[in-house]
Amino acid sequence: MSKILRIGIIGVTGRGEELRKYFHQPKKRAVVTAGADISLKALEAFKNANGNEPFVTTDYKELLKRKDIDVIVITSPDFTHEKYALAALQAKKHVYLEKPMAITTAGCDRVLKAWKSSGNKLLVGFNMRHMAVFQLMKKLIDSGKIGAIKAAWVRHFVGSGGHYYFHDWHGTRKNTTSLLLQKGSHDIDMIHYLTGSYVKKVAAFGSRDYFGGNKPNNLRCPACKLKKTCLEVDYSSMNRCCFRKEVDVEDNSQVIMELENGIKASYMQCHFAPEYFRNYTIIGTKGRIENISDGDTVVLKLRKKFIDEKKLKEIRYKVKAGKDRHYGADALIVEDFLDYLLKNKKPVATALAGRMSVAAGCAATDSLRNGGKMLKIKKAPKGIK
Ligand SMILES: NC(=O)c1ccc[n+]([C@@H]2O[C@H](COP(=O)([O-])OP(=O)(O)OC[C@H]3O[C@@H](n4cnc5c(N)ncnc54)[C@H](O)[C@@H]3O)[C@@H](O)[C@H]2O)c1
Question: 184: Cβ below 6 Å to ligand 1?
Answer without folding.
Answer: no
